Amino acid sequence: MERASIPRLHVTTDDRILGSSDFFAAASSVCAAGSGRIAFHVRGPHTSGRTVYRLVRDLTPVARSSGTLLVVNDRIDVALAEGVEAVHLGDRSLDVRQARDLLGDSVLIGRSVHAVEEADELEGDADYLFFGNVHATESHPGMEEQGERRLTLAAARATPVLGIGGVTVERVPSLLSAGAYGVAVLGGVWDAPDPSAAVKQYISALGG
Beta-strand (E) ranges in the chain? Predict the structure, then answer.
């Protein structure tokens, strides 16, 4: 997938968010607010494959109608079953080359990395990278804070690098100045009083 077609704002989820009673309505509103400029990640490390499949199945028409890039995290089986456009891999997932062999060249593949050396190793394999945690975040307590200097080092390559971890709207400009292609957000959207409004604020901070 061309670099220009990779959204600069990625909205991620976790088990708590996927399990909320109003998830589908909230997710639909977030996709609509993104106006075709976001990627929406269905991510639930401890959520069953059956539930992830159901959520992806139900969200697929919502994503298509709003122009949202729907991303399945970790679950290659769900991605294959639903024919999604993008997957995102972490430390517990298959590696990028194995996923590429299964999914083909038309599927966008992202990967999370937590050190500059990991970004070096994946250069040319993944279509984009999440680098973090840039700042401390409650969603990953105890994980080392990489900081913006290391983000700059990781972003000095052709593969688009998005900053993740403690990314507030106010921090977006400095992350872009550090070389980030875009940002990935969890709490900044879902813990906001109005997640849809938060999405619009992030998009504005990223330059529209």
Answer: 9-11, 38-42, 69-73, 86-89, 108-113, 128-131, 161-164, 182-185
Please list, in sequence order, all residues whose beta carbon lies within 8 angstroms of the beta carbon of residue 183, skipping any fewer than 6 positions away.
Answer: 8, 9, 10, 162, 163, 164, 167, 172, 175, 202, 206
pTM, entire model: 0.94
Residue type, 27: A
Q: Which of 203, 171, 173, 172 is nearest to 7 (CA)?
A: 203
In contact, 161 and 148? CB cutoff 8 Å: no
CA–CA dist 180, 182 (Å, integer): 5
CATH class of the domain defined by 3-205: alpha beta
43-63 pLDDT, tens digit per residue, is 999 999 999 999 999 999 999
Q: What pLDDT digit, counting tens, does each position of 128-153 carry?
A: 999 989 997 776 565 667 789 999 99
